[in-house]
Amino acid sequence: MTKKYLVLTTGGTIASAITEKGLAPSIPADEIASYFKPKADVSLSVEALMAKDSTNMQPEDWLEIARTITGYADQFDGFIVTHGTDTMAYTASALSYLLYGFDKPVVLTGSQVPLGMQYTDAETNLQDALIFVSETTLQGVFIVFNGLAMVGTRAVKTKTQSYDAFESINYPYVARIIHGKMNNLYQPVPETPVIMPQDLALDPNIFMLKAFPGMTVDIFDYLTEHTHGVIIESFGNGGLPFERRNLLPGIQKLTAAGIPVVITTQILEEGQDISLYEVGQRVVEAGGITAGDMNTEAIVAKLMWLLAYTNDIAEVTRLLQESMAHDMGFV
């Protein structure tokens, strides 16, 4: 039987051409689709959703992509989303939650060099994405880039120019595609399903703060008045300073105001063990919510998703620390 797949284009480098102000998306969707080489038993359709540099991608755009996919769920066997690389990991994470429990594969891909240009990686990435989406038995959201397939909540862009721009952090790659052939590398362990509301919604009113030596404590007054959730990229295993510029009362103030404070680490790999040091234990005592081995991109998307359904700190904490879409608990 013929399998049907829908390609959704959103812009990005892969669809860009040179303008007076630098590269900007302008290649039409049908031209992008012409670079795919589907097998005889594969049928491709294409739809242009938007034409954005992914720097301009916003939560409202994530919702549009998710709604389009769910709207076509009964008509296609899987989906490919072409996307700019700069925020692709955020979009992949957001779709992983917005489409939580989706029973078909959704693959994001893009390129470091636009289609039609010398040394472009776009054609290979497009074909690899098609091979993966049409041959995998996995469900959910993935990024396929430079011959590797990775879980959407675990992908991080680590290079600005090289072809191997994305890495799977704290989680194995699920497949490798070489010369048109796919090799499965890892079969994700099934998760216990978490029952979540099916309405597609996000609350983008969050703030992410990167700790640094000498950071003022005054920022917490603003955050208490203007945000619904805060993410702090801490040092090492989750510690924050409590001498001189003591940040812990700021966390306590936010928590007392009903604002969840998620603590992650600036270190890319191996997650955090927040109870290992006194500086981490004090953060937890102040109300900080540890995020284990989750990526910052996944935390941002998951917190927006959870806050759209509840503002109860205890419930946000419970759900954020529950593994969903393989986002935590591997390390």
TrEMBL record:
Instruction: Report the superkingdom from the record.
Output: Bacteria
Q: Name one Pfam family in it.
A: Asparaginase
User: Mind listing the GO biological process terms from this record?
Assistant: amino acid metabolic process
Q: What class of enzyme is it?
A: hydrolase
Occurrences of domain Asparaginase/glutaminase C-terminal (ranges): 205-319
Molecular-function annotations in GO: asparaginase activity
Query: What does UniProt list as catalytic?
Result: 13, 13 (o-isoaspartyl threonine intermediate), 85
Q: Where does the L-asparaginase N-terminal domain start and stop, copy by copy?
A: 6-187
Report keywords, A-Z.
Hydrolase
Q: Which positions does UniProt annotate for substrate binding?
A: 54, 85-86
EC number(s) stated in the UniProt entry for this protein? 3.5.1.1
- Transmembrane parts of this sequence: none
Catalysis performed (reactions): L-asparagine + H2O = L-aspartate + NH4(+)
- State the family it belongs to: Belongs to the asparaginase 1 family.
Protein name (record): asparaginase
Organism, scientific name: Weissella diestrammenae
